[in-house]
């Protein structure tokens, strides 16, 4: 096996990627996908770069995908014909010139992971997981459906990829805690949608029980196949920079699989000689759901789950993240920082970012708010090359934006609200209103 599951805490044993297993049978810790270093080192660093550059943008199946471009690093043994892909990834790096200018930064970039099929970075992991399930079914494994607990984006990705493959899907959603746009995605893609009177952590407990008999496959990020797809954010960023490593990468986190995925991607590139330096990985959490930030303040000496309070950043409203051990290890390995953002801070960060041409989801706004605070503290140097990972498209959260600009979000001051001007159909009054607006905006 060129890739297999193994325990993150080092217990003996390796398990095939076709095994339905999510935790170590000896200690109960999460598993990770381990790759055969000898197999990967058959190619030199320059050969890997040439291979990946030649595949970028191609229509040759499945390498045009921003995930499957790196197939040998993800799941080398799967049959190409069983891969379920919608050419996810390949998301742009947005030069945040004006937003960076507000902070005195000229080298600030936003990795637009929401510019993908279902509008979030979850597609990157779901193509790998659903492809593996599709391969297992093709080989005779009896799997009735694939299921996940979700705060919205995971359910959208799972339902779309399963619909594409013709595999039934089930999503467990916390009732009245996700946006309409997020709810309608799995409904449209024919998932069995269960709206549960609990929060995400409660849904997570239920889905783990439902999937115990192995007839329903678990698709949450405790399944480390997801991490393999998400880790491609790291090589794609580096490749987009001409194989240069940025100084800092800021990513919002809830269940924390994305943090460990970034670390895994950069670690692999270091091992293979693709890169020679480490970026600093920075995790941003909403203050109303910030258990890892609290642990960071105590130098990770202990970690206590919290009861997540309601936050505008609903996708990261998670108080008991399953990937916390992986995340802490990744942050330690990459000189990491954890910062949090209040509801006012994230809402205002989104509004300011949007004024510079973005359309920012509230989770990305948490990362932008953390950036502002860390630059102010001097933790991030203004001349550093910094990448903020945008995890979803803002169109999924237009209710949040409407509420901000109408000043109707509970407890939010909306300092940068931009309300439409209701005017009579009178040229003189329109001209007068425009002159007032020009004067007001020029003075700011």
Strand order of the largest sheet: 3-4-12-9-10-11
Unreliable stretches covering 5 or more consecutive residues: none
Global mean pLDDT? 95
Mind describing the biggest β-sheet? 6 strands, mixed
User: Tally the helices: what do you get?
Assistant: 17
Q: What letter string, H or E per element, gives the SSE order?
A: EEHHHEHEHEHEHEHEHHEHEHHEHHEHH
User: Structural class of the secondary elements?
Assistant: alpha/beta
Ends apart, CA distance between termini: 62 Å
In CATH, what is the class of the domain at 93-119 and 227-405?
Alpha Beta
Strand percentage, roughly? 5-15%
Shape: globular
Q: Which range best describes the helical content: under 10%, 10-25%, 25-40%, 40-55%, 55-70% or over 70%?
A: 25-40%
Question: What is the name of the CATH topology of the domain at 93-119 and 227-405?
Answer: Rossmann fold
Report the CATH architecture of the domain at 93-119 and 227-405: 3-Layer(aba) Sandwich
Rg result: 22 Å
List how many beta strands DSSP finds: 12
Give an overview in words:
The protein is an alpha/beta fold and 444 residues long. It has a domain at 93-119 and 227-405: Rossmann fold. The chain is 39% helix and 13% strand. It is built from 17 helices and twelve strands. Strand 9 (248-252), helix 11 (257-271) and strand 10 (280-286) form a beta-alpha-beta unit. The model has no long low-confidence stretch (mean pLDDT 95).
In a nutshell, what does this entry contain?
With 444 residues, the protein is of the alpha/beta class. The protein has helices at 37-40, 45-55, 71-74, 97-103, 122-138, 153-165, 180-188, 200-210, 225-230, 233-240, 257-271, 291-297, 324-333, 343-354, 362-377, 398-405, 427-443, and strands at residues 3-7, 31-35, 93-95, 108-112, 145-149, 169-174, 192-196, 216-218, 248-252, 280-286, 337-341, 386-390. It has 17 helices and 12 strands.
């Amino acid at each position: 096996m060129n890739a297999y599951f193994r325990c993150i805490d080092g217990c003996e044993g390796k398990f095939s990627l076709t095994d339905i297993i999510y935790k170590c049978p000896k200690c109960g810790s999460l598993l990770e996908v381990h790759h055969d270093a000898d197999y990967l080192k058959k190619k030199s660093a320059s050969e890997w770069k040439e291979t990946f550059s030649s595949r970028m943008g191609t229509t040759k199946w499945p390498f045009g995908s921003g995930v499957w471009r790196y197939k040998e690093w993800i799941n080398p043994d799967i049959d190409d014909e069983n891969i379920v892909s919608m050419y996810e990834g390949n998301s742009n790096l947005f030069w945040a010139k004006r937003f960076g200018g507000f902070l005195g930064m000229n080298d600030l970039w936003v990795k637009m992971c929401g510019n993908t099929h279902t509008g979030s970075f979850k597609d990157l992991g779901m193509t790998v997981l659903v492809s593996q399930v599709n391969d297992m079914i093709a080989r005779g494994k009896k799997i009735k459906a694939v299921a996940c607990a979700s705060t919205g984006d995971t359910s959208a990705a799972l339902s779309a990829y399963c619909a594409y493959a013709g595999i039934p899907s089930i999503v467990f959603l916390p009732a009245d805690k996700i946006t309409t746009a997020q709810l309608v995605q799995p409904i449209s893609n024919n998932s069995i949608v269960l709206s549960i009177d609990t929060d995400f952590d409660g849904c997570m407990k239920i889905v783990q029980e439902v999937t115990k008999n192995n007839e329903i496959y678990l698709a949450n990020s405790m399944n480390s196949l997801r991490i393999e797809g998400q880790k491609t954010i790291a090589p794609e960023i580096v490749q987009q920079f001409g194989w240069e490593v940025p100084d800092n990468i800021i990513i919002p986190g809830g269940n924390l699989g994305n943090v460990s995925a970034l670390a895994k991607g950069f670690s692999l590139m270091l091992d293979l000689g693709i890169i020679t330096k480490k970026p600093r990985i920075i995790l941003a959490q909403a203050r109303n759901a910030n258990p890892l930030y609290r642990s960071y303040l105590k130098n990770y000496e202990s970690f206590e789950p919290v009861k997540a309070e309601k936050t505008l950043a609903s996708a990261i409203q998670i108080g008991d993240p399953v990937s916390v051990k992986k995340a802490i290890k990744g942050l330690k390995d990459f000189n990491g920082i954890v910062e949090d953002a209040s509801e006012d801070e994230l809402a205002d960060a989104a509004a300011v970012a949007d004024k510079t041409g973005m359309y920012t989801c509230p989770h990305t706004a948490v990362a932008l708010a953390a950036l502002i605070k860390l630059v102010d503290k001097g933790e991030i140097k203004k001349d550093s090359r910094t990448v903020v990972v945008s995890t979803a498209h803002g169109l999924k959260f237009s209710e949040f934006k409407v509420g901000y600009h109408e000043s109707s979000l509970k407890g939010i001051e909306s300092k940068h609200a931009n309300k439409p001007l209701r005017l009579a159909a009178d040229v003189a009054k329109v001209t007068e209103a425009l002159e007032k607006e020009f004067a007001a905006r020029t003075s700011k």
